[in-house]
Write a sequence for this structure.
């Protein structure tokens, strides 16, 4: 069952792939501050996300996973390496790569409606189209009643729904999610994990998802990338089975499935090595 | 909760009443405080009513008030027109800040009042001298707080806007300026406080109408009761104006005054 | 990419813009005389005036004399504001009834701008040191009270409880626990008060008195000597910055437990 590709070392792209990558991070290194003297956040990481694939990056806190995300989104330039979308340099951030942030990043001065329409208005979508997409997205995320609310009036879970809606309404080719449920309480997190799982099954989004929760990684991911502690390198890539019964239901049920438990144990073992080693 | 609040208000009103009684007792005929130095409360009230209809040194009280308000609001408004865009621009374009800020830092430590003699020499004792002094006094808080308002916008929001396809101009107009509004309301209050306080001094030094002018003349004519009327009016108008600005926050930036409604 | 850091660039830009300004000033006055000297004196004239006021008496006193008079008035005002304001602020936080009773008077001082007290002060004290000191007091007092009160109110109750558990009397709790914890806030209040007082002093001296820096610029206006006003304005600004810097620097010596790493 386990198909660990092993350490994807420098320079080598994965030769086993036939389909072209939608998003490719190629040999990314990132230093904050001067090279050799500043903080070495990420070291020579390569990740490919194919169309319709859900990749989860998991690792100990402070391992540079979020840096990988900001680089992938184009918000930071890598010190070395490049980011490719459909094989071409990705350039500056834009609506083809929508981002969901851990801290929601909703505009406090705008209502739910205005927040969700924001990107559409920035890119010149017609008013009628804006409205249609808004209504659809409100329905999908269950936000119809909160259309005129301000973010400060919503709970954390609702705010993150708005942020996800704001990203999805752009019909992005790639969805980047940076520990989107990290700031939520356990119950809300479970509900949203199930919704994201459902959305991915139905709409086949291409997702790069960052988390520190092993359970979340096993439940959501088609492939799980385990990172080392800082400077973040890729420790192991693990392919997970798709279309298995435990991936189509509640996370509570999934967590009791022997296969799920086995994957969780294996990945946790890898992450644990990184946390306890000095 | 409601009950203790009522008690607080009642106690506050009681304290005010107590002080008025103490005031009246101290200034009673033959009392310890001569009315030349501090007039009795009923004298002040009588003078207030009288000044409302009869002119004192040229104008009635409402006209003096209007004269003061005209100067302070003009100076404050002009300072806003310059200070807000300049402050935001300085926070947004580093180079502009590097160029303008040193000059500004040089002028800042000088008390705005110290400019009064200069403006009188340059502009005469007309309205423009007072308006420009008020302008200088209000400009500093407008500009500084507009800058701070931009700096206080969460970087994450800028990132979010970028990933949604907004360009720099769109981010500045839609994210930065709007998110900064509550801070700007605070800036408006501070600027008005400075402006009002400086105006009083400017009117004491050079004016032909206004509450400061009333105060200084009353002092010279030993009309202590008029002086107290002027001082109270200055205080009350200051409170009213800053209060009004506070209220504008409700409709300028409604999101900033909402409590969280948990679902 | 460049050799300079942001900080270096900022300094370079600053020096550049200030030099442009100075050049413009020199061009407009000394070089091309676009502006008449009685409207805007040249830098050289200002410097000459400076030298003159330092060496020759101006209205009876040389510049250091005027400075000392200003500092004396300001000192008295701030000192009394501190001596009265800190206890008042502490008791405001300690005893709500005390606060309720005194609040109307406090708000009166707080909301009427200090300059509005100038005519009253003149009426009460005439042209004496007390007049200016009173205006400085009124300007400095509210900041001290508010910040002292805030400082005491912010002291966490567990500290007070801890002191009680160890058997400290209320007075000793106040001295050993509450005041040290409130000191940083009180200090902030003093700092604001000191600079507010300085601003107010200038206003008071403009209106009354025969000595002091404010008087000097008022005199400059009277004599239509812009150079004198410039000398006064520059001195006031520099002293203001100097005082504020000294107060800021002194904090680490007065409140050693506030020293932070880095």
């Amino acid at each position: 069952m386990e198909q660990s590709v092993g350490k994807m070392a420098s320079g080598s792209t994965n030769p086993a792939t036939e389909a072209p990558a939608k998003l490719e991070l190629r040999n990314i290194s990132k230093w904050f501050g001067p090279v050799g003297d500043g903080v070495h956040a990420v070291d020579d990481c390569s990740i490919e996300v194919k169309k319709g694939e859900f990749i989860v990056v998991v690792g100990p806190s402070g391992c540079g996973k979020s840096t990988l995300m900001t680089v992938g989104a184009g918000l930071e330039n890598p010190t070395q390496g490049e980011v490719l979308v459909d094989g071409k340099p990705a350039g500056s951030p834009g609506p083809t790569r929508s981002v969901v942030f851990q801290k929601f990043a909703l505009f406090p001065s705008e209502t739910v409606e205005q927040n969700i329409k924001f990107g559409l208005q920035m890119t010149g979508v017609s008013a009628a189209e804006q409205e249609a997409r808004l209504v659809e997205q409100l329905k999908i995320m269950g936000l119809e009643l909160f259309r005129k609310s301000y973010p400060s009036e919503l709970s954390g879970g609702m705010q993150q729904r708005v942020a996800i809606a704001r990203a999805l309404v752009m019909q992005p080719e790639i969805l980047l999610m940076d520990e989107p449920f990290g700031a939520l309480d356990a119950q809300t997190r479970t509900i949203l994990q199930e919704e994201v799982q459902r959305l991915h099954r139905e709409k086949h989004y291409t997702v790069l998802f960052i988390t520190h929760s092993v359970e979340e990684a096993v439940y959501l991911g088609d492939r799980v990338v385990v990172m080392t502690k800082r400077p973040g390198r890729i420790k192991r890539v693990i392919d997970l089975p798709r279309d298995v019964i435990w991936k189509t239901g509640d996370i509570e049920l999934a967590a009791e499935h022997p296969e799920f438990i086995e994957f969780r144990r294996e990945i946790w073992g890898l992450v644990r090595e990184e946390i306890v080693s000095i | 909760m409601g009950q203790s609040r009522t008690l607080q208000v009642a106690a506050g009103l009681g304290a005010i009443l107590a002080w008025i009684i103490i005031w009246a007792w101290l200034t009673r005929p033959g009392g310890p405080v001569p009315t030349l130095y501090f007039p009795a409360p009923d004298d002040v009230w009588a003078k207030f009513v009288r000044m409302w209809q009869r002119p004192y040194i040229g104008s009635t009280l409402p006209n003096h008030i209007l004269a003061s308000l005209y100067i302070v609001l003009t100076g404050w408004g002009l300072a806003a027109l310059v200070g807000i865009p300049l402050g935001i621009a300085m926070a947004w374009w580093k180079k502009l800040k590097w160029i303008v800020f040193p000059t500004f830092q040089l002028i800042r430590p000088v008390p705005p009042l110290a400019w009064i003699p200069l403006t009188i020499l340059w502009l005469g004792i007309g309205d423009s001298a007072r308006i420009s002094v008020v302008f200088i006094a209000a400009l500093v808080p407008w500009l500084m707080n507009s800058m701070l308002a931009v700096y206080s916008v969460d970087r994450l929001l800028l990132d979010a806007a970028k990933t949604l396809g907004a360009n720099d101009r769109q981010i500045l107009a839609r994210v930065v300026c709007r998110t900064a509004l509550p801070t700007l309301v605070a800036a408006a209050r501070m600027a008005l406080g400075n402006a009002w306080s400086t105006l009083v001094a400017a009117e004491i030094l050079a004016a032909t109408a206004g509450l400061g002018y009333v105060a200084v003349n009353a002092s010279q004519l030993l009309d202590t009761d008029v002086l107290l009327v002027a001082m109270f009016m200055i205080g009350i108008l200051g409170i009213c104006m800053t209060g009004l600005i506070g209220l504008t926050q409700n409709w300028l930036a409604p999101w900033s005054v909402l409590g969280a409604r948990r679902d | 990419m460049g050799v300079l850091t942001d900080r270096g660039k900022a300094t370079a830009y600053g020096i550049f813009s200030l030099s442009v300004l100075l050049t413009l000033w020199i061009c407009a006055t000394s070089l091309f005389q676009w502006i008449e000297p009685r409207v805007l004196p040249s830098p050289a004239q200002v410097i000459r005036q400076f030298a003159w006021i330092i060496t020759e008496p101006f209205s009876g006193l040389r510049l250091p004399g005027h400075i000392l008079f200003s500092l004396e008035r300001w000192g008295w005002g701030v000192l009394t504001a501190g001596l009265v304001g800190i206890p008042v602020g502490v008791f405001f936080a300690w005893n709500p009834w005390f606060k309720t009773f005194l609040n109307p008077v406090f708000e009166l001082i707080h909301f009427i701008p200090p300059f509005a007290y100038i005519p009253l002060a003149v009426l009460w004290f005439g042209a004496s040191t007390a007049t200016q000191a009173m205006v400085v007091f009124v300007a400095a007092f509210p900041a001290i009270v508010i910040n002292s009160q805030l400082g005491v109110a912010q002291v966490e109750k567990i500290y007070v409880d801890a002191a009680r558990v160890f058997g400290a009397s209320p007075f000793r709790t106040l001295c050993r626990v509450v005041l040290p914890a409130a000191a940083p806030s009180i200090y902030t209040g003093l700092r604001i008060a000191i600079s507010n007082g300085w601003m107010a002093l200038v206003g008071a001296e403009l209106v009354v008195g025969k000595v002091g820096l404010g008087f000097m610029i008022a005199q400059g206006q009277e004599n239509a000597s812009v150079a004198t006003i410039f000398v006064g304005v520059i001195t006031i600004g520099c002293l203001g910055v100097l005082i504020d810097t000294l107060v800021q620097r002194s904090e680490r010596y007065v409140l050693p437990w506030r020293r932070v790493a880095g």
Q: What stands out?
A: Chain B touches chain C through 57 residues (CB under 8 Å). The mean pLDDT of chain B is 88. The domain at 67-206+237-253 of chain B is CATH 1.10.3720.10 (MetI-like fold). DSSP finds eleven helices and no strands in chain B.
